[in-house]
Write a structure and sequence with these properties.
The longest helix is centred in the middle third of the chain and has 103 residues. The chain is an alpha+beta fold and about 425 residues long. Among the domains are: about 140 residues, no CATH class; about 140 residues, Histidine kinase-like ATPase, C-terminal domain (Heat Shock Protein 90), CATH 3.30.565. It is about 65% helix and about 10% strand. The chain has a five-stranded mixed beta sheet, with helices on one face. Helix 2 packs antiparallel against helix 3.
């Protein structure tokens, strides 16, 4: 059970006890009237007094006890309170001892009246109480001393009643706001508990999705590495072996092509091992990106007999390993595509270091193609431009391809310039 529910239960119990007090006060006042006898105070006959008591009893029973739902109807409660004041005045007219019953009028001031009307109601009850304290309505026309005493008692009763009622209003408002805050806090706690439960489920779901994404990303990485390393290496080996067969009558050329094929096999094997271990590409080991690209361009040019050059602009700063590896693999794939499809006579690579970006442009003067049509590589397991684009996009980069039949091809990879020092 929450604190708010306990507070509401205690409040309901206190309200039930308060509802009994008017009946107790009415009965007690009647007993004192019967026991007092004739003590020299103005009083009416017992029949009139008993009739007034029964009328007050019936008014309380009908308006409060038998119809508790009327407490939520402000106009009905105003009628009840006005009638109660009239009955209190009637009882005090019958006998001043009913001033003890008059005090119960304060119990209804805070429950049946609203706003500033509570102060007016408390003042009215105080006036009737002051009348009972001077001995009833019959003494109002007595000597001047009695009138002065009445005015003093009236001021005292009204001052006390209005002050206490005002404080009660403040406490009631504070209690209502506190109860509302506790209720809102309980609702917030319930919502927070529900959100935590939901977040736990989402967290478990995200873990499953993260595992699946990790597996898929690793598959894509391995697919790219196999294409970049094994496929390109095997293609180069096949090309060199075919050239060796054609140069069978020239021993020096044949030997050169066989040595090149042997070196390509060794390099491909080393790169395959590095790919499995997720290490940096071999050309980047102990070398800067421009130096590694220059080595790749020089080796490719020597193997294929095509003029190729690398131009570097800007200040070459060390980048994150993932970014440098992506640019190197992009250059290798672009050169492999030139060798397979372009029939180019010249290739130019430009590596540009800018403040926030690094770009790699690869241009050739080969046959070109129409980028609007999907190109199918002529070797089994072709990966092509899709591999480059996927690899660049994984590091938040972009890849643009410009080409047209007979006018060569230009490939531009643009990646964030995340430097090693800045990342640290």
């Amino acid at each position: 059970m929450s604190d708010v529910q306990r507070l509401e239960i205690r409040q309901r119990r206190a309200d039930r006890r308060l509802l009994l007090m008017p009946y107790v006060a009415l009965a007690g006042s009647t007993v004192m009237v019967l026991a007092a006898g004739d003590i020299g105070v103005p009083r009416q006959g017992l029949p009139i007094t008993f009739a007034a008591v029964l009328l007050a009893l019936g008014w309380l029973l009908w308006m409060v006890t038998l119809h508790p739902g009327w407490a939520d109807r402000p106009r009905v409660m105003v009628v009840f309170f006005v009638g109660l004041l009239a009955l209190i005045g009637l009882l005090i007219w019958c006998h001043p001892f009913y001033g003890f019953f008059a005090w119960t009028g304060y119990l209804y001031v805070g429950t049946v009246l609203r706003g500033r009307w509570r102060l007016a109601g408390a003042g009215a009850v105080a006036c009737l109480t002051a009348v009972s304290q001077i001995g009833g309505f019959g003494n109002l026309g007595a000597a001047a001393e009695v009138l002065v005493a009445f005015l003093i008692l009236l001021a005292f009763n009204i001052g006390i009643a209005v002050s206490m009622t005002y404080l009660s209003i403040l406490n009631s408002d504070h209690a209502a706001r506190r109860a509302e805050m506790m209720r809102e806090l309980a609702e917030t706690n319930d919502k927070l508990a529900s959100a935590l439960t939901e977040n736990a489920g989402l967290h478990a779901q995200l873990l499953v999705q993260a595992r699946e994404a990790g597996v898929l990303d690793e598959r894509q990485r391995m697919a790219g590495e196999i294409h970049d390393v094994l496929a390109q290496g095997l293609t180069g080996i096949v090309t060199q072996l075919e050239a060796a067969d054609q140069a069978a009558d020239r021993e020096s050329d044949r030997r050169r092509h066989l040595d090149t094929a042997r070196q390509l096999a060794r390099d491909s094997l080393a790169e395959a091992r590095r790919s499995v271990q997720a290490l940096r590409p071999q050309p980047l080991t102990g070398a800067t990106l421009p130096d590694a690209l220059a080595e790749v361009v020089q080796g490719w040019s020597a193997r294929h007999g095509v003029t190729a050059e690398l131009i570097t602009t800007g200040t070459a700063l060390p980048l994150l390993p993932e970014i440098e590896a992506t640019l190197l693999r992009t250059a290798q794939e672009a050169l492999a595509n030139v060798a397979r499809h372009a029939a180019a006579g010249r290739v130019a690579l430009t590596l540009s270091y800018m403040e926030d970006l690094v770009t790699l442009d690869v241009r050739d003067d080969g046959a070109g193609f129409d980028p609007a049509h999907t190109r199918t590589d002529e070797y089994a397991g072709g990966y092509g431009l899709t591999a480059m684009r996927d690899r660049v996009q994984r590091i938040a980069g972009t890849l643009a391809v410009e080409s047209e039949p007979g006018a060569g091809t230009a490939i531009s990879a643009c990646v964030p310039a995340l430097h090693v020092a800045a990342a640290a």
